[in-house]
Amino acid sequence: MGKLDIQKLRETLCHSLCAEVGVEQRHDGRLFISTPFTFEDGDTFVIIGEMLPGGGVRLTDCGHTLMHLSYSMDINILMAEGNRGELFERILADTDVKYDDGQLYFDTPLESMGLALFRLGQAITRVYDISFTNRSRVASTFYEDLKRELLNIVPGSKVQKDYVVPEQKNAENYKIDFRIESREPTVPVFLFGIPNPEKAKLTTIILEHWLRQRVAFDSLLVFADQGKIGRDDLARLSNVGGEMIASLDATEDMKRKLERRVLVS
User: Fold this and answer.
1) What's the CA angle centered on 43, arms 39 and 44, to 5 degrees?
2) pLDDT tens for residues 229-265?
3) What is the CATH number of domain 139-261?
4) Using CA atoms, how far apart are residues 171 and 206, in angstroms rounded to an integer?
């Protein structure tokens, strides 16, 4: 194997990278910077350069990234507490990119524009990828979404999260995801979120336990994706559970079934 010519390799790499980046001055004096970076739908990243009064340049996406993200999720989630909000803050910290009024930006001296461009591109990519947690709805974000959807329908004063049935032996081992006051005061609604087969099995055990204890309740089961629960697990769950909502995206179905049981005003 021949010895690598590092200098030639460096020159070739720099030439290739430079060929993929273009800079044009717009009529307003700002710089339009084109890159090979694209979103899932094929749209290229928007990166604009603005000269700073004290010298240097600000590279900004002009709010384009969050606009794209808003097509698949509520971007207000990024500013709230929870897994997605924490992830957003971590991305900004890791890349040294700043956020203000919808924009992602990076202030840099002119001589460091190359590094700044890659940092901003990395941040845009990672922020946009947050949308995939919305589509797959992993367990951690599923429960956040479920709570948000529930509180959009039912007043918070009627909802108790991680409810422990009082005056019952070992009740801590059989917690209820959400207890909701119903139209019939002595028969609350026990709502369970089911993001995966393991939770389907656990919910079956919890429901069977409280049925054996003759606790009065109605139940509502909300799946991340009912189609991903095995037939046997689903059959056992349906034997002990109440009505089911096949997906958290079925918001109208969830609203209708809750309004039949709960006074929402």
Assistant:
1) 80
2) 989 999 999 999 999 999 888 889 999 999 988 877 6
3) 3.40.1350
4) 10
